[in-house]
Structure prediction request, 886 residues.
Amino acid sequence: MVNSSTATGISTGRLSADEYERNFGDLHPALNAHQANVEAARCYFCFDAPCVTACPTGIDIPMFIRQITTGNTTGSARTIYAQNIMGGMCARVCPTETLCEQACVRNGGEDKPVKIGFLQRYATDAYMDTGRHPFQRAGATGKKIAVAGGGPAGLSCAHRLASLGHSVTVFEAREKSGGLNEYGIAAYKATDNFAQKEIDFILSIGGIEVKNGMALGGGRDLDTLREEFDAVFLGLGQGGTNDLRLDGKDLDGVINAIDYIAELRQAPDLSGLPVGRRIVVIGGGMTAIDIAVQTKLLGAEDVTIVYRRGQAQMKASRYEQELAQTRGVNIIHWARPAELISDGNGVRAIRFEYTSPDGDGNLVETGESFELAADMVFKAIGQVFLAEALAGSEAPELVDGRIAVDADRKTSLPDVWAGGDCIDGGDDLTVAAVEDGKAAAMSIDRYLNSAAA
Amino acid sequence: MADLRCDFLGIKSPNPFWLASAPTTDRETNVVRAFKAGWGGVVWKTLGEDPHIVNVNGPRYGAIHVADRQLVGFNNIELISDRPLGVNLQEIKKVKREWPDRAMVVSLMVPVREESWKAIVPLVEETGADGIELNFGCPHGMSERGMGAAIGQDPEYIENIARWCKQSTRMPVIVKLTPNITDIRHPARAAQKGGADAVSLINTINSIMGIDLDTMSPDPSTDGKGSHGGYCGPAVKPVALNMVAEIARDPETASLPVSAIGGIGTWRDAAEFITLGAGTVQVCTAAMVYGFKIIEEMLDGLNTWMDGKGYSRIGDFRGAAIKNIVDWQYLNMNYVVKARIDQEKCIKCGRCHIVCEDASHQAISIEKNGHRYFDIKDEECVGCNLCASICPVEGCIEMVQMTEGNDPRTGKPIVAEYANWTTHPNNPNAVME
Prediction:
């Protein structure tokens, strides 16, 4: 028996098996060879190409596209991986519309950039299918590096270090590595267990040992790692979430969006995942979009995102906002949560106050409010770095609650580097984390080769 | 509407667009379809002696593609008509009778024997065809048998065969020339000496289209082996324009009518050949790539352009560009241009900069006030046109003439008077005035 979208309350199995499959299939099917050739031919092979500058990892985009046009997809993938070993995942999850594709000069001519992300996926998918690894390790250096956190930053760092001949041990708290690639990315952006496949691909270079279920602390803290290893990289992510600061925030049905998404990503059968009929999402970033779209795709009848500021201030790109809207998600701007209303068992509704900016850009309430019925209220109001992970050890300096690093991603400690969402200035993007890991690895390598090590 | 009618050697056609001797004109079905589509005439696929030749039972064509698989170059190893002579003659007669207003020219290729030519020409005349075109051009298959381009490469043969044909018919005789020679003027003069009424050119260019890097076989491939074929399509148009112009500029052949062939796919291409004196134009590749319907665009485009220019008939602009084709030594050395980038149109791809850096005179700067901005350094720009040639945006970079002041590159004053190499001080053979 299938429960419909209109079944009241929180329910499992709102859709048929076919609908789940369709809703959580690939958001953008891969380009076929013909499509890739047509698209690749549009690239102008610009001088000092703006798309390369716009790519946090600096992939030589005109070169990899030119390699596609000549039928050299192997070389194309190698060009991508040389700068970004997670080129496959980034092709799927990068907000290309605000990065490389926004910089494409075709926007100036015809308002239609080259589909760089799709082409990157074309080349990397083809390479992954070969089962090979594009790089060979340099001769063993005998140096050992600990990487705390097996997310994009940590794995990128580990891969680059391994390729330079160092031995790397990755300590990952969770059962699976991959960080947000595995637990956070919307399911329809990384179908077919891609995150794990990519990790296997990365690790196939050799020289990297991954220890899952091992968090920092509890006998293996930062001090210990610094003693046992020649250098340490911290890619700890952001383990906490911002507080809603409302009475009733612990009511049943008031949920951290990232926790639910992680559950969704790991669910063996989506029909077993309970979802409300009426959903309210608080927030304006990518997590808000991802939870809203995915609950809608799980069969929720009404899904509304409420954001305290305007469309222009939303951290989710216009493209992502439109994606949510075309999936039937309603987005309300200029309102913030004021009261969670319980029916005695859990949340029943949530009241919002309308806001407007004052002269200084601060938000003030207008005095008007509205109420939305909700079986589930998702908080997508940002994550925070949990500095407790460093407790008991000599800790690197923090800035605004995150680890301070220099341009080389080096912390205030001489043998400790950091990257990804846990560092100050972190960009909340997979591609930025990959660059952090790569830059840190290069710096670590220089450090290890110098007299200091 | 302009009058597009043509009278070429007395052969009348409603417009100058003929289909060249090729697979498109191989048989009644195709030719009737072409006439229905609006083509002004055809040159029927080349007839030979019986027993008719045979073609390979496999790929006859190869192609060069650019972006989006647009075909810019094409080649073939197809031979002349592979049907019995009698069948072709019968169909020619029928089609001409049913389409009397269209030009029906028949292409011929037989061995270099007077009796062979004198035998076949009357058979064609009997069909009511308007003229014959002697195929001295095909560079593959038939040339190895002493026909086609083998004739076109020998002026004496050209002259003799043209004469034999003229002696055997009242029909106009057109000699189709091969470009696989060093100087097109010699075969053209020979045709004229033999009494030919016109020449048509160019036939296809010897070519191998590519090598399959897996099988090491050329393209097109017949069971792993390949033979050179005839190259045509948009890529050969510049070769054809030059050869047509050479004939028009040669005092000996200046009055020899020309039917132009070579990469003509649009009305613009056709108009360009007509400005070099062409009486009609012949099209093949474009019709093989897009079908006969392209004639509609060609007719409409030519008409619209002529109306806009105030040309009421083809003759109004025929040959208009011939006088502007000169030898290099007569180019004006006092003509100075500089590239100008239209910043409104510029999409900032930077290609102009890098090609000027790598292949020209380092004359394009890359930033202004910290922003990506490409501009010309007049003190370095030699006006070579490389940047404008490679710019992906049409009309973004233009070459603008300097008419006053000093050339910032040379420091020399701009001079209005024409002066060419023949009097240039650097020329050891300069003629002192």
Summary: Chain A has 17 helices and 19 strands. The interface with chain B takes residues 37-38, 41-42, 44-50, 69, 105-109 of chain A (CB under 8 Å). The first strand of chain A starts at residue 10 and ends at 11.
